[in-house]
Amino acid sequence: MYCPQCGQERTSEATSFCSQCGFLLTAAAELLHTGGAPPHAPNASSSPQARGLKQGLFIFLLTFLLAPIVGLISVFGLRMEPWPVGIVVFLLGVGGMLRMAYAVMFEPSSAAALAEASGAGSAEPQLGARVLDQALPPPSFAPPTARGRLDTSDLEPASVIEGTTKLLDKGP
């Protein structure tokens, strides 16, 4: 796979960023695997409000399953009065209704509203756009000069005593 931004070849499947420009390659790889279609299309039930309503309804309906079981265990298994049934009905029934009320009053009704409120703009990175949160910083090296790349034999080694000599030149 090649980087869609600069054309650099991906060194291995384990790398997530382009080694030359720092572009996030995982989103591009997902697009290639799905044939260009988004990996998961957003649906209407993925909003936080819809999830909260489903959770509240599940907790409320769980009351009708657990209350009889707790009642049977307390009356026939433990030979006591069925007061634990009241606790189960109160906790699950009222808890489920409170969860649904919280979802309706305080949670956003769509995932787009949640993304706008958080300032993200878009929940998924766009192909070709640089993701600033996850991208590598720009390279800090200078490109080779016009005469070509330097060989290690072209470089002049610094003297071992150069630093000491400079200190002596400064004087006391």
Structure description:
With 172 residues, this protein is an all-alpha fold. Among the domains are: 1-41 and 130-138, no CATH class; 48-107. 46% of the residues lie in helices and 0% in strands. The protein is built from five helices and no strands. Helix 2 packs antiparallel against helix 3 (83-106). The two termini are 61 Å apart. The mean pLDDT is 77.
Order of helices and strands: HHHHH
Mean pLDDT: 77
- Tell me the distance between the termini: 61 Å
Gross geometry: elongated
Rg of Cα set: 32 Å
Helix content: 40-55%
Low-confidence stretches: none
Count all strands and give the number.
0
What characterizes the major β-sheet? none
Structural class, please? mainly alpha
Give the amount of beta strand, in percent: under 5%
User: Count of helices?
Assistant: 5
